[in-house]
Amino acid sequence: MALKRLDIQPPNVNGPRSVKNKTLAFSDYITSNDFDIVAVTETWLGGPGDKACIAELVPSGYKIDHVPRQGRGGGVAVIHKAPLKLSMLASSHNTNVTSFEYMDCNITIKNFSLRLAVVYRPPPNKQNGIKTTTFLDDEWPTFLANFTTAENDIIVVGDVNFHLDNRSNPNTSKFNSVLEACGMRQHVTEPTHVAGHILDVLITRDTGTTVSNVEISDPGLPDNNGNTSRDHFAVVFNASASKPPPVRKTVTYRKLKSIDVDEFKTDILESDILNSVNDSLNVDELVDAYNDGLYSLLDKHAPLKSKTVVLRPMNPWYSQELHDAKHLRRQLERKWRLTGLTIDHAIYRNQCAVTNKLLNVSKVNYYSEKVESCGRDMKGLTKVTQHLMGNTKDAVLPSGKYAKVLAQDFSDFFVDKVECIRSDIAWTKSHQQIDTVVPEAPFNEEQFSNFSVVSDMDISKIIRNSPNKSCELDPIPTWLLKDCLGELLPLITKIINTSLERAYVPPAFKSSRVRPLIKKTGLDQEVLKNYRPVSNLPFLSKVLEKAVDSQLERHLSAHNLHEERQSAYKQFHSTESALLCVQNDILRSLDQNEATC
User: Fold this and answer.
1) How far is 40 from 86, CA to CA, in rounded Å?
2) What is the rounded distance in angstroms from the CA atom of residue 136 to the CA atom of residue 146?
3) Would you say the pTM of this structure is higher than 0.70?
4) What is the distance in angstroms between the CA of the first residue and the CA of the last residue of the chain?
5) Which end of the chain is more exposed for a tag (fewer CB within 10 A), N or C?
6) Residue ranges of the domains in the chain?
7) What CA–CA distance (Å, rounded) separates 377 from 380?
8) Tell me: the pLDDT tens digits for 522-548?
9) Rg for the chain (alpha carbons), in Å?
10) Per-residue pLDDT reduced to its tens digit, 297-324
11) Strand order in the sheet with 234-240
């Protein structure tokens, strides 16, 4: 098998709090260089509020595994492309190591396996009580000895906080002696710290050829204020491993935005869709005429196409201005590397600051517009907020089955569950003993015996006030339906009125797309009972539902038939009103010296 190069960028990038105050720039740095694996030290991750930091830090298409320090600061992490399989073998959490932090993991790429360890040794001081002798004489030799018998290739990266360039230093000499005794060598030969010292390591077997093209680079990452900081440089190298294949996906799509709405309206008027308004058709035939006619028009104006795409990290706020700034930054970096002049380095770092500030502004503007566009849509606003806070949920499904087989398994399970509930209700009704029958209160008002006909204006108001959500079963998207409402309104009104007059819901309105969602994070995804079905109904079925609801609501309100204590599914009521009612009852009972239970 021909091996391709695996791009790896190990620690430490810009020193203390290296991740938490530069998450967006760090994420952009990873995707701009298309790194396969990034090892980081001094992550400062692990706190209760770090979920949002991790969400911004890890680009789409990547995953993170990290070992936080049990306390303030520190921590090590590996960010890797999703197709790579990483399994944690050991860490400083489950060993008695006290002088340094580490994570030891195995990375699988196709049939190739790589052992990768990330280490961080904090500088000894009175506060942490770390002793150099403990590290060099005991824990570090024991740690490296674990790799001498490993079958696969090994790479150890990290920050050990020794001046490894000062060979006359006793600690450096002892460190190098331990490496030599374990049959390993250090590949970093250039300064990795702004003070001109080598503090970072890239260690492999002394006979290994796994590592090549080792480079020390300045990533130019900023802090939260956009100021480009300097402490550690980045160590970038290639590993002789099979590069993970790009994730491909076949998608079907329509170019809906390319539809000429005026031409679409003209085709509606010239088609046979509206002829059914004057025909004496039943509701099923009307719905079929509506769906078939619009499907054919949609196929004409936006035919269904399919293509295979490579899934790449997504940055929806990426603009042409940002693209140009990053392109200039890359040019200046190459010039600095070519000349090595201090002035070229300063110009490059200045462009890094400009680019990073523009990156922050682009993202802020993008999400500000998203929040503003939500308006009073609290559900949409919550979705945006949850995404920013890192609370998005990836689709989880049982593994090891073909899509059709899995869909049938879920269908059988949910159908059986509904049948079980129905049979239990029927059994309870037939066997339950009712001792006392409470007589119904007499009702002398007008009975609600049938639904009244709705007008075009009523249906138009319902549709206009509905969100632009669509179901896969809709013949056209909701936004296009609203644009063509003037042409389609007579037919839609006839469908709704025919359904109300005959008290009949067409089967097409009962058909839905059912998606199984895991009930709770952490549940076994292989067990079907841990999933709940979520149904998406066609848009017109929701219009019918709202037409029915409005008439029932008017009747209940006009005759004061609402349940006084009901809070669910009731206008101006919610869990808040229910809690206020309970609190009020408790306070009134306390005022009257009555018991509460």
Assistant:
1) 15
2) 15
3) yes
4) 73
5) C
6) 5-240, 254-299+398-427+449-561, 320-388, 565-597
7) 5
8) 788 889 999 999 999 999 999 999 999
9) 33
10) 999 999 999 999 888 888 888 899 999 9
11) 62-67, 76-81, 37-41, 5-9, 234-240, 211-217
